[in-house]
């Protein structure tokens, strides 16, 4: 079975993306024990808040039209969607700078995060690179350049993690002396090593800049290939055709964007609730939990999701059923994820304490409560794109509202009723089991009726 999967076109594309993604994750995973000793939970918490702002703005940056790039049969239509995406992204970037120029001080007071005040000015630039990377990734997948997509992941991750590492070293002034640097690495894994606390300007700056550098590196990798192979298609771009494609795929900004927006508001709501009820350190533990648990999602799940979306879209455009693809994808992801998440479920606290330092044991305890939810999210999320392909985005949006409400209110109940975040995580995971089972059955049903 495994041999047949690897030899199939779908399997080869998944393996190509997984190979690049795995390489892209080796450096972050290898450096995570170092980074958790260079940056404090408070700094990771503030960075998580900054990243959530970018995620929300990314929803509007190109109207979610980038997801439509894969759908048309003709490149002429696809290149006009790409032109539409970059036009909207450019307008959004300029508009953000104008808004910040007028309301910067008001935003500083609103977010109540003094450490991020000076970094608000880089939000538009970060968004420009993040949006460009996302748009070009969908174009690369449309052209089945999964190796190129894979290389861009490596470039993005390498740029991000290298900046974080260099910034963390600079934060402690270790670049000034080779002797101090070697002494630091010799002592940092000792039990007597005191982990950093609080927010240092250099520390939060390095984390924020790492996001910009990472997206820029990934964008540049994809842009070079696009200019080399596809620049002639730009002659087909016109305002008339961009308007036509905007109207044809208008459900993306009308429905899909609000779907994504609710996802991001849920994330911000959860982060804000944890920050308000507990502390920046608890938010840092929570963000680190996601950072670790989503590693297998990034390496494997995203690879399956991108190849599945391209292949299912192609089959649907040619009036062919893709129900078999849905079933096989879920089965393969389940078998892959089960051993990974089982180990995390059983040994989470000890693994976090051993690898990241004893202070991070709390994050390991969080993993035990969140693993059931993220396991099902890993298995089911890739096939939810069926709703986009079949133009059932409205129904998917309503389902997402239910899922997000479960997450948000579970955290609220744990925080305000029980004053125990772990209880909130437990409620969340139990309810998500029933939610994802329903989503899976619904996806199978609409896929079966498609053809």
Mean pLDDT: 81
Count of separate DSSP helical elements: 16
Share in helix:
over 70%
Can you write the helix and strand succession as a string? HHHHHHHHHHHHHHHH
Task: Tell the overall outline.
Answer: globular
Distance between the termini: 27 Å
Structural class assignment: mainly alpha
Report the count of strand segments. Answer: 0
How many domain units?
A: 2
Outline the low-pLDDT stretches: none
Layout of SSEs?
Blueprint: H1 2-7, H2 9-38, H3 41-61, H4 75-111, H5 123-142, H6 146-171, H7 178-187, H8 201-230, H9 239-248, H10 251-277, H11 280-317, H12 323-356, H13 361-380, H14 386-389, H15 393-417, H16 421-449
Helix pairs in contact: 2-6, 2-11, 3-5, 3-8, 3-10, 3-11, 4-5, 4-9, 5-8, 6-8, 10-15, 11-12, 11-13, 12-13, 13-16, 15-16
């Amino acid at each position: 079975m495994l041999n047949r999967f690897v030899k199939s076109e779908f399997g080869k594309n998944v393996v190509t993306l997984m190979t690049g993604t795995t390489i892209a994750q080796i450096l972050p995973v290898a450096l995570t024990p170092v980074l958790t000793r260079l940056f404090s939970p408070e700094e990771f918490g503030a960075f998580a808040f900054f990243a959530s702002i970018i995620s929300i703005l990314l929803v509007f940056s190109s109207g979610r039209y980038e997801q439509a790039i894969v759908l048309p049969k003709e490149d002429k239509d696809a290149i006009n969607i790409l032109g539409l995406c970059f036009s909207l992204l450019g307008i959004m970037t300029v508009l953000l700078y104008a808004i910040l120029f007028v309301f910067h001080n008001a935003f500083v007071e609103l977010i109540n995060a003094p450490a991020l005040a000076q970094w608000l000015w880089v939000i538009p630039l970060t968004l420009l690179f993040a949006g460009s990377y996302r748009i070009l990734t969908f174009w690369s997948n449309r052209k089945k350049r999964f190796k190129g997509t894979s290389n861009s992941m490596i470039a993005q991750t390498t740029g991000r993690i290298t900046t974080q590492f260099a910034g963390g070293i600079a934060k402690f002034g270790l670049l000034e002396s080779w002797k101090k640097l070697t002494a630091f690495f010799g002592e940092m894994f000792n039990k007597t090593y005191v982990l950093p606390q609080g927010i240092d300007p250099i520390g939060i700056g390095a984390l924020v800049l790492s996001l910009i550098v990472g997206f820029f590196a990934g964008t540049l990798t994809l842009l070079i290939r696009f200019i080399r192979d596809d620049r002639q298609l730009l002659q087909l771009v016109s305002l008339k055709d961009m308007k036509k494609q905007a109207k044809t795929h208008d459900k993306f900004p009308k429905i899909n964007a609000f779907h994504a927006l609710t996802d991001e508001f849920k994330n911000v709501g959860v982060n804000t609730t944890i920050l308000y009820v507990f502390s920046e350190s608890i938010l840092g533990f929570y963000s680190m939990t996601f950072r670790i648990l989503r590693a297998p999602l990034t390496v494997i799940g995203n690879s399956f999701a991108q190849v599945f979306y391209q292949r299912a879209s192609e089959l649907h455009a040619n009036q062919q059923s893709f129900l078999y693809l849905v079933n096989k994808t879920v089965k393969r992801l389940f078998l892959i994820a089960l051993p990974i998440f089982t180990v995390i479920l059983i040994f989470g606290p000890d693994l976090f304490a051993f690898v990241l330092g004893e202070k991070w044991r709390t994050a390991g305890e969080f993993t035990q409560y969140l693993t059931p939810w993220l396991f099902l999210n890993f298995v089911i999320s890739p096939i939810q794109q069926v709703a986009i392909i079949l133009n059932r985005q409205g129904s998917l949006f309503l389902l997402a509202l239910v899922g997000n409400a479960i997450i948000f209110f579970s955290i609220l109940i744990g925080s305000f009723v029980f004053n125990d975040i772990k209880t909130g995580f437990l409620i969340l995971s139990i309810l998500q089991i029933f939610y994802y089972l329903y989503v899976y059955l619904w996806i199978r049903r609409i896929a079966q009726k498609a053809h």
